[in-house]
């Protein structure tokens, strides 16, 4: 089950990767004219700004459809376009049948008497569910052979047809299940929302704790997307909501990702052993830059998550505190990808942005707090953060080549550490990790793999291993596939 949810988290990265396009379009549009969507503006908006904001809105407003298509494609074995088409078909069938107007027609009642849940049927949850069902149909029926008279519909051509028929059944189930499920999600969201800034901090704390499992995506969907009516990201970028409140589940991540974690990396570098500082720097500098510039934190977090788990819990607590403080100050900014410099600059001109400069002040404070705490805890408890490991295998560690962008060499080292291509059964990757299926865990040489400059290794199952590479993972995966196919 854990493996399935981790795969789902990886599949969600495909549609989420589209969001920066919306951020760029809308950010530039609001930069040109900050009042472009204001209903009571005293002058006509600039046409170019309207064009860009509406173009970006087309992506944000249709995120559930992107989820349906992206999840369907990402969860299939062959990554075939027919699966994506089936995801779209599944989503259109269920959301059309369960529209408030059609429910009113079915029950012969006024539309005002239809359960409010059906007005929110076009949401991220239904999009993900549609993608999962379509992917399941493709995996099971994508190679089915029909009788000669129906042979045209054999294989993947029959998948959208089967998916649409199955969604009729799913629609019937959701007719009864969606209203109570929606109410539970709303109550959960309201319980956190009702706690105000404290609730935002609690959410952020668990957001970080769930990173190792990949299940933080499920938690994020409740607060960031329109699953329980919160839709913090969508409302922030669309300019709807309450200024100073909308964005509270995003804003506090900026001080942590842009300043706090890089300061933690500096503390780890300063406390590294003299003979390992160069190797530590190669890993930490690249990871810190990724955190600051793009908000991708996994390479840095995985560099100490398992070496010093207590330090990671401190990081999760600090994240919760800074998100809560930012919410208390009503300082808001938003992101479409993650809380890095790019999204900060793009979102700071949006109508919902409120006192974003205060996030920079919090960032300076976060830098000091993270550096002092990390350095004190590492030294006090002699934690084995990067560069503080035992002195054996120093020569092997000097072979770290990821920082030099020698992806072929990195792939070779990883393949050797995995026990050769004979031990590999599947190669895949998400935005920062290699996700591999292997035959025998006993053949894994973690020290060999880490000598390539790898941030961390996870073994989520008997035949599964994840290797934390960072944002360069696609290049490493491509080279690993080439080597495995030779």
TrEMBL record:
Protein's name according to its UniProt entry: PTS system, N-acetylglucosamine-specific IIBC component
Matches recorded under NCBIfam families: EIIB_glc, PTS-II-BC-nag
Alphabetical list of InterPro entries matching this protein: Glu_permease_IIB, PTrfase_EIIB_Cys, PTS_EIIC, PTS_EIIC_1, PTS_Glucose_EIICBA, PTS_IIB_1, PTS_IIBC_nag
Membrane disposition: Multi-pass membrane protein
Active site positions: 430 (phosphocysteine intermediate)
Enzyme Commission code: 2.7.1.69
GO terms of biological process kind: N-acetylglucosamine transport; phosphoenolpyruvate-dependent sugar phosphotransferase system
An example Gene Ontology CC term for this record: plasma membrane
Pfam family, one: PTS_EIIC
Transmembrane segments: 12-32, 44-69, 81-98, 158-178, 184-206, 249-267, 279-296, 316-345, 357-378
Entries under PANTHER family matching the protein: CYTOCHROME C-TYPE SYNTHESIS PROTEIN AND PTS TRANSMEMBRANE COMPONENT, PTS SYSTEM N-ACETYLGLUCOSAMINE-SPECIFIC EIICBA COMPONENT
GO MF annotation terms: kinase activity; N-acetylglucosamine transmembrane transporter activity; protein-N(PI)-phosphohistidine-sugar phosphotransferase activity; protein-phosphocysteine-sugar phosphotransferase activity
Localization, UniProt: Cell membrane
Domain PTS EIIB type-1: residue ranges: 408-486
Keywords: Cell membrane, Kinase, Membrane, Phosphotransferase system, Sugar transport, Transferase, Transmembrane, Transmembrane helix, Transport
Enzyme category, top tier: transferase
